[in-house]
Amino acid sequence: MTTxxxxxxxxxxxxxxLINNRPDxxxxxxxxxxxxxxxxxxxxxxxxxxxxxxxTGEGRAFQTGADLTEVASDGVGMERYQDSLVDFDLHFTSWxxxxxxxxxxxxxxxxxxxGLHFVADADVVIAASDATxxxxxxxxxxxxAIEVIALAKKIPFEAVMRMALxxxxxxxTAARAYExxxxxxxxxxxxxxxxxxxxxxxKIARNSPAAMAATKKALWAALELGLTDACRVGAQxxxxxxxxxxxxxxxxxxxEKRAPRWVA
Length: 264
Prior knowledge:
Layout: E1 7-12, E2 15-20, H1 31-46, E3 52-57, E4 61-63, H2 68-73, H3 82-86, E5 103-107, E6 110-112, H4 116-121, E7 124-128, E8 132-134, H5 146-151, H6 157-166, E9 172-173, H7 174-180, E10 185-187, H8 193-205, H9 209-224, H10 227-240, H11 245-256
Parallel strand pairs: 2-3, 3-5, 4-6, 5-7, 6-8, 7-10
Antiparallel strand pairs: 1-2, 8-9
Protein name: Crotonase
Family: Belongs to the enoyl-CoA hydratase/isomerase family.
Organism: Nonomuraea cavernae
């Protein structure tokens, strides 16, 4: 098990937790955190004991994007990210690491800028009732693109454009995020967020890992493709599971009225 400086990795039953852990700077992402996130996603995805992954933040924020103090202080600036962006090699996110297990983003407090990567890339997003969302890129002279483009595939375009153009001068509440479909559950009181995330993750973890992985691939592919092509790809994932032991075990467990014994 790897030791990390800027994140915590924990395991609670079938649930793996990835916790952003720079609370003194609202979990802003420095270079070390970027590298550690890349490793942690793979560590949890490859762990056979982990069925579902939850990401959250320590302290008052979920994640607030690039550490601007680091960006402004070393003379390199945003150019530090040029190669990874040109090559579209953003391994600090679950989507770019091709994580096959279900991912829940449990948003506590502030989620801003690059923190929206993790909201856009998660399979399920829940939020504490006091969570807020905003994208300050244009307010600090930067272009906002990848995070909000991904969000535009999941929620109404106008809401995304407003967030991108208003920048740091307006925050979206958890209630508004729920109305838009950016989050599927609001947790109140906020201090019970991790408990709610663990409960949801354990529900998901009861299902067939193989079936969930194929389902996840099929549904994410639907955001990339037109309706007919998406259905064709979905059919391939459906048929691809035929012959897998879980496909026989599921109906048998139902008939025998017992918990299924899935292949890990």
